[in-house]
Amino acid sequence: MLKYIYLPSKIKTIAENAFYFSGVAELKLPESLEIIGDSAFYVCKNLEYVEIPKNVKSIGSHAFKSCSRLKTLVIKNDPEYIGDHIVSENTLIRCYKGSVVDQYCQKSNLNMEYL
């Protein structure tokens, strides 16, 4: 089972379903990352914390959905696109007040905390 993912520093895209149901527990996303595809980490039940790099422009639908142990998703930027149901209801999203992510959380009725 895949436990740790440390992606190369030049990677720009994580494809749709790339790590679907992989069991990954620890994830380090590079600053070069711009796109997280639909369901990229769907059902990664061991993930507990994810920090989205500042250059990410797109977070696909269900990107971190059904990650039952994912307690916190930190998004420090304003992606141009945020898909539907990026996380499960029990996940806390940490973001900046007044950001696109803030509006998304309020519209989707998700748990949110300001950075």
Automatic annotation (TrEMBL):
Source organism, top-level taxon: Bacteria
Pfam families xref list: LRR_5
PANTHER family for this protein: IG-LIKE DOMAIN-CONTAINING PROTEIN (PTHR45661:SF3), SURFACE ANTIGEN (PTHR45661)
Protein known as: Leucine-rich repeat domain-containing protein
Taxonomic source organism: Eubacterium callanderi
Lineage: Bacteria, Bacillati, Bacillota, Clostridia, Eubacteriales
